[in-house]
Amino acid sequence: MINIVLFGKPGAGKGTQAEFLKEKYNLTHLSTGDIFRLNIKNETELGKLAKSYMDNGDLVPDEVTIKMLEDTVNKNPNTKGFLFDGFPRTLAQAEALDTFLATKNWEVTATIALEADDEILIQRLLERGKTSGRTDDQDEEKIRNRYQEYNEKTAPLMAYYHKQNKFYAVNGIGSITEITERVSKVIEKF
Hints:
Elements: E1 2-7, H1 14-25, E2 28-31, H2 32-41, H3 45-54, H4 62-74, E3 81-85, H5 91-102, E4 110-115, H6 118-132, H7 140-154, H8 157-163, E5 167-171, H9 176-187
Parallel strand pairs: 1-3, 1-4, 2-3, 4-5
Helix pairs in contact: 1-9, 2-3, 2-4, 4-5, 6-7
């Protein structure tokens, strides 16, 4: 089983890369954003709670995110592996993921970070916001708040996964094909 954590700042291309990688390696794609949107659309209690945070450009609290993710993993018992997109975002989430996967005798295989300059990513998100309908992609101040949250809460994950020899940084600037090739080189080591 291959379990890949794909992360990077909002707009770094996680969702785009995940679409290619899930097909190429036959992985189950778990996007916390998609899981949130599904719960919000279905007006679940967890969805309503997540929406209140997302509307302010804040990260959804760990306990809400973890519960949604565990529910989704448990619905895919026969998968060949998972591609975690946007999770974990905090050290507490990483530890919770390791603990949860261990209950199934699984583990994170590798963490791949798509890296790109903030100003380039902000322009990507503002463009996406014109067509996505996502309010958190239409306001530069909210985008910058998301980046500040990322830097404070997610960046420490690099050290966590470095210690486990599971962290790989990939240049997230270039064509989709170029970036996919860079990410594939990491995955094919396993």
